[in-house]
Amino acid sequence: MDPRSSAQDVHRCDLCETATVQSYCDFCHINLCKLCIGEHILDGYDKHKIVPFQQRKSTLIYPKCETHPFKHCKFKCKNCENILVCSSCMASEQHGGHRFEELLEIYKTKKETIKNDAKELVNCISPSYEEIALDLENQLANLDGGYEKITTEISKQGEEWHREINTIISRMKTKINEVKMKHRDVLQKQLDEIRKTESLIKQTLQALMDIQESTEVLRTIEYKSDIRDFSKLPHMAQVSLPTFIPKQIDHERLYSSLGHFTPLSIDTKESTLSLNQHNTAVRELLDEPELVVSIKTGYYKDLRRVTCLDDDKIWAVNWTNNINCFSLNGSLLQTIKTKSGQLSYDIAVDSKGNLLFTGGKTMYKVINGQIEQLITLQGWRSSQLCLTSTGDLLVTMYTDDTSQSKVVRYSGSTEKQTIQFDDEGKPLYSGNGIIKYITENRNHDICVADCGAGAVVVVNQDGELRWRYTGHPSVTKNEPFKPYGITSDSQSRILTADFDNHCIHILDQNGQFLRYIDNCHLNNPYGLCVDNNDNLFVCEYNYESNIKKIKYLK
């Protein structure tokens, strides 16, 4: 037995190996009992950091400054290509008037990214590859049986033709065996590639685990996520068994008359990974959506946006500077007043329940009731926003003259991606109309309700156009399609509000119309959201300004 542990897994001192550990050197990463602390620090090394054992690995290790060796860098200079600086560097003439960013904040953001990447690999990506591998293994296991059936059919046909057909039968069996080998090679190659990728995923996951356990700041902040490479599943060849089609006997054309094979069908289709949806039970649409409750907000009119994680705290806003939080019974729980009476264009709630809102050229975050400035724009104005499954912020915005629109992705306050043009250089979004609500679907598609264009515009996570939806023919929906609010559910269905036709359109992830929600007495539906339980919340723009909770899934 290891003398440093017992059956109860009691931690022992790393020096004496007998006493129970009480402290920890957070710089040397050594367990210490009370008596051994003095021995450990006898070398006089001034970097020792003795903390209670329960607080081990809580001290961050900052990189040393290259200019000032006896100081550590705790900031990054934004004006000097993001180089790391210490307090002496910040006070020097070289960095006079520069802007700095704390490494601690970058560290926290990166740690959250690492945590989300690891979670995504474990819960979604890795199981998806395992599922593909299992399917390929099943195809390989059933391969001989399928081809044996064809061989048997050929043999029966050969018996009817007696001895003179035996030679041709042998030739055809040889041919089908060659096709089988090709079939096997295709499947085996795919399986080998999938296994190779699975191995890379495991290596990446182990690396992420190592970084998660590490307290080295430089190692953490230099981490670059390659999760998107794994998220895009490979193009898989769908190989189908050939079919034997017999013909009537013709002695003069014996070989060709016996029959022929359909060619080996190899149909390559793009696999789509639906994040946070793997192993999620399929929920079908109700035949008739049900109005659960209608919440009276007390707003006079123009209710534009609703957002929530669960139905116990429902945030809403209209054209005022008050953002209100309601309970399901309509009680007012909290009010956030925007700075300087500024209007809030849109609101969203992150996974921790913190409120984010836009205010023209500035975006804000509310933490513990305090409003913090998050992002400030130059030359553009923010319109609507949403949070992604990985914690990024997607914002629709437009130029000051409203002639151009685009979508920008932020990680924290750092711009990561701009989506504005298609592969032919044409604008993806209209310039006429500044209201463009946005959501991320479970498959990472970015969905924008472009009211000015009368269309829902959907691009993939790389910003490539997937499809546009411009409404569904209906004898009862007579007004032009003008989508405002948009949201998505756990089944990767997309829901958008049709303002003038007083209904909700439900689409699948490929833009195919599924049905309307038009039986819940909706009056000018505007903002939409779906909570964690797939309940739909709709805010109405009319004078009553109600929020309606609707159940539409079984």
Summarize the structure.
This protein is of the alpha+beta class.
Description:
The chain has 554 residues and is an alpha+beta fold. It has three domains: 1-59, Double Stranded RNA Binding Domain; 126-270; 285-553, TolB, C-terminal domain (Neuraminidase, 6 Propeller), CATH 2.120.10. The chain is built from seven helices and 34 strands. Strands 11-34-33-32 form a four-stranded antiparallel beta sheet, with no helix packed on it. It has a four-stranded antiparallel beta sheet with strand order 12-13-14-15, with no helix packed on it. Strand 28 and strand 29 (494-498) form a beta hairpin. The radius of gyration is 31 Å and the shape is globular. Mean pLDDT is 84; it is low at 1-7 and 274-280.
